[in-house]
Amino acid sequence: MSDIVEAVVFDVGRVLVQWDLRYLFGKLIPDAAELEWFLANVVTEEWHFEHDAGRQLHEMVAERKLQFPEHAHLIDAYATRFSETIPGRVPGTHELVERLAGKGVPLYAITNFAAPFWAEYHPTEPTFRHFGQIVVSGEERIAKPAAEIFRLAANRFGHEPRSMLFVDDNAANVEAARRLGWQVHHFRDAGLLEDDLGARHLI
Length: 203
Hints:
With 203 residues, the protein is of the alpha/beta class. It folds into 2 domains: 7-18 and 87-199, HAD superfamily/HAD-like (Rossmann fold), CATH 3.40.50.1000; 21-85, no CATH class. It is 48% helix and 11% strand. Strands 3-2-1-4-5 form a 5-stranded parallel β-sheet, with helices on both faces. Helix 10 (171-179) links the parallel strand 4 and strand 5. Helix 4 packs antiparallel against helix 5.
């Protein structure tokens, strides 16, 4: 039998908010095949992850523009229009956050998010007012699924891993948390999360 959940810890991207580089670059690259090539070779999620992990944006952009000078304007768009990769909320999860908060459940988050992009985005989302603390990879220069970020978060949140439920859409992140003793929910949609939270008597 699982331990009682004292706190719920959310991922942000693709759990609370929609995120995809296509939301921005689909506006700038009308040809579908060219768009897929660009996202597979130039502004890739793997490259973006370096920024999430703390690498400086100006270094990344300058290096990439040397590699792909014909795409310099698009690489600049990554740096200046990142908010357009977040078109809105993931349906249903914010309502669950409100219900958890209404029940007095302590809420936290661990997010892979570049520090300057987070500073720009965080104030625009009122749901974050319910979160006691949010550990941001770009600020810590440690990204999920590294064990260090989960250990840092557990220490900062003040709860034992076994007493926290970690919610993330990324299987590697979920497995990393599980190995460290966290209770976990591999997020697919708000309906399944609602069922899990209900089964744990959290909502």
